[in-house]
Design goal:
Organism: Actinomadura algeriensis
Keywords: Oxidoreductase
Shape: globular
Family: Belongs to the short-chain dehydrogenases/reductases (SDR) family.
Mean pLDDT: 96
Helix content: 40-55%
Radius of gyration: 16 Å
CATH class: Alpha Beta
Number of strands: 7
Protein name: NAD(P)-dependent dehydrogenase (Short-subunit alcohol dehydrogenase family)
CATH superfamily: NAD(P)-binding Rossmann-like Domain
Strand order of the largest sheet: 3-2-1-4-5-6-7
Strand content: 5-15%
Distance between the termini: 25 Å
Number of helices: 8
Largest sheet: 7 strands, parallel
Low-confidence stretches: none
Order of helices and strands: EHEHEHEHEHEHHEH
């Protein structure tokens, strides 16, 4: 049985992708900060699920996740993230402490998890899927702080792919989704597609084990 560790799995894309993989027979290790919401999601997934509530910025929690994953891991999905300051400010008004906290969640925590789990991933020639955003590459006003975190995650992924050729390393833009995060950003979340659509596209990426690189969920969906 293949095993995936998915962060931020209590809602949105993380929950949708975890559900996809659970239905396909994967064993799951999942985390989220809200313990009650995580337990409810884990119950809904069915199958073999280990729920480990906590914050990915906490080293002790990351150690708990590594222990839960055991000696072998097929897939790490770094999905947990934060917008940072809301409402989203222009860079001239971006509070620096907020931006530092966003980088801690969106960049440093994923890298720390990768470091902790590389031995388990190497053992099974596994894969890493880092969830990024079009804000990493586009100049959307007020999205500069958040976009800078995703741009950093993309470059870390790019270099990691070169350094770990036996692993598949993907950084994927899921596109707009009907999530609380998009709503918190002040966008019309109700007009966006549900996260299940992006999750299905990313599932195809995982199943096909496409080459390391940057992918967009919309393009993966179109390639069916």
């Amino acid at each position: 049985m293949k095993t995936a560790l998915i962060t931020g799995a209590s809602r949105g894309l993380g929950r949708a992708l975890a559900g996809e993989l659970a239905r396909a027979g994967w064993a799951l290790v999942v985390d989220a900060r809200d313990a009650a919401a995580l337990r409810a999601a884990a119950t809904a997934f069915g199958g073999t699920v280990t729920a480990v509530p906590g914050d990915v910025t906490d080293p002790a929690h990351r150690a708990d996740l590594a222990r839960a994953a055991g000696g072998g891991l097929d897939l790490l999905v770094n999905n947990a993230g934060t917008l940072g300051t809301t409402p989203l400010p222009r860079l001239a008004d971006q509070p620096i402490p907020d931006l530092a906290a966003a980088h801690a969640t969106n960049v440093l925590a994923p890298l720390a998890l990768v470091q902790a789990l590389l031995p388990a991933l190497r053992e099974r020639r596994g894969a890493i899927l880092n969830i990024t955003s079009d804000a990493a590459v586009e100049n959307y006003p007020t999205w500069g702080g958040y976009g800078s975190t995703k741009a950093a995650l993309e470059q870390l992924s790019n270099v990691l792919a070169a350094e770990e050729p036996d692993l598949a390393v993907w950084w994927a833009d899921p596109g707009e989704m009907r999530t609380g995060m998009l709503r918190a950003a002040g966008e019309d979340a109700d007009a966006a597609p549900p996260p299940e659509e992006a999750a299905a596209a990313l599932h195809r990426l995982i199943d096909a084990r496409l080459p390391s690189g940057r992918y967009r969920a919309s393009e993966l969906a179109d390639a069916r």
